[in-house]
Structure formats: C-alpha cells, structure tokens
Amino acid sequence: MKLSWLFGSSMEAHHLLYAYLSVWAIQGGFCAWVLWNWVRTPKSSGADVEPPPPPEDY
Amino acid sequence: MVWFLLTLGVIAYATRLGLLLAPVDALQGNVFRIFFYHVPHSMLSLLFPYVNLGASLCYLYWRRRDPLKALTADAVAIASAEVTVVYASICLWTGMLWGRVEWGIWWTWDARLTSMLLLWLLYVSYLMLRKLSSTGQTHTLAAVLSVFAAIDVPIVYFSIQWWRTQHPAPVFGGGPDTGLDPSMYPAFIWNIVSWAMWGIFLVGFRYALERRRQAFEQDAALKAIEASLELAK
Question: ipTM of this model?
Fold first, then answer.
C-alpha cells in the first residue's frame, strides 16, 4: 500500500487518516498534559521539612 | 526515558506494519486498517480498569491501617483511571470512524457500543468525583465507585457473545469461521504490544506526577502546622 492512498478524497481514506491522526493527537495530548503538570508541580523539599515537634503538654 | 524512546520506536514500527505492510482486507478494503489501532485500544481499555480496581481495593484496605501505603495505591488508582478514559475514548472514536464507512452510521445503540459508552461514562464520573467533590471522603467514595465501575468490564467483554447485534462477532475465540488471516498477525500483535507499552508508560508517568503532587501537599501541610505552632508560642 502506498501512503498516497491515505490522502485520497474518498470517505474511506479520510476516516482512516482521521483515525490514525486522532489517536496520536489524543495520546500525545494526554502525555503533554501530564508533562505540563509535572513541570508546574514544584518538587517536594523532602528532607528540608522537619516534622513538627509534639506540643509540650502532649 | 529509555522505555519512552523504545515505545515510540515500537509504535512507529507497528504503525508502518498496519498502514503499509499488512494486506488489504478482501471485504472491507483499506478502512480495515483502523482495527490495528481500534482493537488494541479496546482490549487495553478493559485491562486498565482492573489496575484501578486493584489499587482502589488496596486503598480501602490501607486507608486506616497504613495511610502512606494508601496514598500510593490512590496514586495508582487515579493514573489508571485517566489512562482508561483515554483508551476508551479512542476505542469509541475509532469505532465510530469505521462504523460510518462500513455501516453508514456513526452510532447505534448496540449492546457492545452501549456498554462501552457506559464504561467510559463511569470512569469520567470517577474522575469528576475526584476533581469536584469536597467532602473529605473523596478518595474513599472514588474507590467504592471504581468497584462498581469494574463490574461493567466483563459485561462489555461478553456483550458480543451474549447479544448478537450490530457489532462484529469476536475475531478470536468466536468459534469456527472466525479469526484473522495469518498475514495480518504481525501488524496486529505489534500494535497490541506497542500500545500496551505506551499505556504502561502513561500510567507510570501519571503515577509519578500524582506522587509528586502528594509530596508537595504534604510539605505544604507540614509547613502550615509549623507556622501555626510558631504562632502559638
């Protein structure tokens, strides 16, 4: 099969092309959304945060 | 990163097999190639709900016994639920694109299509509950909802055996005269492997994001407690 067929004017060709493109768009979009949130979420300071001491009358 | 690059390579190879090297289907023509993406996404959208179910059950078990483990399970639960919605959305959308060409209609209230739409709605509800609820028991409610949502998975799977309506019969294990031409197996199997690898990557990445967010929230809570103790002195 030659790829040029994919860009034909039949409904068959259009729908096959839309199917493959939309899968990449949805999967890539979700991955990009996770990456965007990953960059925006500050990394935990971890060991810098000491658990607070219990109150004196605990 | 190695897994990500390997997955992209396998997806490219599987797509080439599906689009260029697999033979044309004698009955359906080239539009059959949609199945090389549709079927793997459908299969995986019935597997990730079980990851969500397992993680939700672990959350319910650990939430009082070991809250730190419960948080880990909760991160797996939300990651797998989001990936389920992504895969189920693709399953529905690519199925509609194929149906419009082969059946002449975008949608019909067939048993398989309806049960799949219900599965999608259940996991969208799960995510909306987690996003919008402010009861303080959100994670517990979501975990309980995921148990109910998982009940729909076997109904979706068996729907084409229990009710023979519009959707094609099972290709594998559907009895005599079913199955795939052996020349189509490489494209089919490589596409299942590639999208499974991608799904594992997405669940892992989303899980890491959720753990990062949880750690940040714990930090913020500890700092708030420290600040309030300072004020109390």
Answer: 0.88
